[in-house]
Amino acid sequence: MTATVPLRPVRRWIHRTQSAHRDRGETLGSLYFALLFVVIVGAMLHQQITAVLWPEQPRLSGVSAIALGVLCGSLLLMTLRRLGPVSLSRPAAYFLLTAPVSRRRLLLPAARLTAIAAALLAAAAGFAVVGHTTQRDAAPVAAMTAGAAVAGVALFLAAVTAQGDPVRAALTDRIVAFTLAAALAELVAEAAGWAPPTLAGWPTATIVVPLVGALTVLVTAGFLHAVRGLARTPNDRILESSQTAGTLFDAAFGMEPSWVADMVERRFWAHRRLRSSRPPARLPVLIGQDYLLARRHLPRLLWLTAATTLPLLVAGGSGWLLATVLPLGAMIAAGTTTATVKTDAGNPVLLRLLGLSSRQALTQRLAIPAVLATTWATLAMTLLQATGKVPGSLWWLLGLTLGPIGAAAAVRRARVGFVRNDLLPLDTPMGTVSTGPLLSSVAGPDLLILSLPTMLAIATNTPPTLTTIAIQAVVTALGVRAYVTYSTSNDRVDLTR
Amino acid sequence: MVDHPAVEVSGLSVSYGSTPVLVDVGLTVPAGTGVCVTGENGIGKSTLLRCVSSLQRPDAGTIRVFGGEPGETPDFWRAVVTTVEPPTWYPGLTTREHAELICRAHGQDPDDAGIAEAFERFGLGGHADAIPPSLSSGQKQRLTLLLALLRPSSLLILDEPEQRLDPDGRALVAAMLADYLTAGGSLLLASHDDKFAFASGAEITTMDSLSGPGA
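ok -> structure tokens follow
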């Protein structure tokens, strides 16, 4: 047996060697620019940040505040689960995970950093939730914010526990999905007009402080226990989370979000057990394939169905926000099956094997996304209409006309490919803007401009008339047809252009 | 289509930067026959196959496939199958569904196309419900060749099809290529394995012999 090698000198050597390759003062320079960026953005957006964290007229009911807190907690736990949370950098996973060093010491720094980040995020979310309620006394607010920070660490511990065992992981994910759905359901129900029961009142500081104290003791004990068990985290889990962290870093550094999307897609299918089946024979071949794919995305379809209620949440705010959310939602719904288009656009090997023209392929690939987007938009519009959030009675017809636009936008998004970093940057008074990532980010959503007649009707709160619907239908038909005609050909198979 | 050679190349030149890879290359593959190009690594076999498949534009020379210019039209890809490029797979589709998709796109009834038999012959019978990324590299190579041979075509352009195959797999693929030639298909392949090329029924030629004015 090899004796355990002390880790600290190894890490110090790595740090020293890396530092030797940096220019003198480079780290300080980076820190200076990061701080400057935060200060400038803070100064520019302080009014918006205040409105989010501490609005002048808080409107959240007690039950809504609890639901919002549960929603934030669920999202935080979901993020921690996706990240690991016990992780290593890719070089450390490659060189040090297999080295005879203390695993606990190896994993502890990242675990500690993640716990601190979870506590800070939870504290910010807790402060914002309390800030939206009528509770404005300093002592209870401070105590609740501190409690939220401790709860953030508790969520980190839950994620660590789940990481080590597949059964616990599946159970945690199910609980998170349930709490997320329940919290959203409450918020939507209230937005739709349901009056929640009034709570007896906010707990006073004398109740909150001891509770937070007890929770802190429990979480501290749990954290120490988790640290003792860090070494038992399975290698495959650490490697997976290391790959996740690496991909996220690459995507951020290279401004290439498609790497994250590819990783998510790969993992989704790697964990599925499929059974070969055959689509209905009367469906054209690629529509049949997309039909199979949509059927295999049942959980996503259920979430999308539930998400048709989400526009109700923003219906009370700016008209333009609602006008933007609806076509965007249709595009996201359509994106359920567009991974096939992404595959073909990235490498047309299979399209050549199929021997179909790009026009045939794209026309068929639009069908299932159009059905999904049309269904989503029509349901969302019908709900808005039924709850009186929009005036008039013909909105569901506009939903029917939005579907093909959402499908075309999703398909265009899937055809974008890698971000082009070779394009000339734009010099603006605010600094230099890279045009490649900018153009890539708008490719797809830019087609949603075709839904302008509907957006205008929503934004100006104008009841749609048959003329509005006819205009939207004509714009949709002409716009989608033009997209297919000018971006494909009967004489080539390639979908890239 | 049968009036013309399957592949006719003359005066083909390709350079990568200042490095010439193909210089005045000539090659003819008569319809219904097979030619296997051999040669050491880097001599330009794959470049030649890529040019014939229209996936790479040559610096000079003419290429005819069944008398026409190779292109990116659906008609060309209905006649020609190539494995010059690394394969890609549709997400969420099993290996068998990939095969059925390709059959249906070519108007074949999946039940009559002999998919199950092909899977058994290629040793993939137990992997019909697997997704391709979960297969080993050798199994992926078998699947690539299975898909290439399953659909109707007139010309196969294969780049080192014996790669990553075990000895049994090589013998099987060589026999299937020989059957393909017997059925009237044409074959252009690059290989490092003379035994495999011989068994496939293709005439073996070296890259050196294809270069120069007399080629």
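Strands of chain B lie at 7-16, 19-29, 34-38, 60-65, 80-82, 155-159, 186-190, 203-206.
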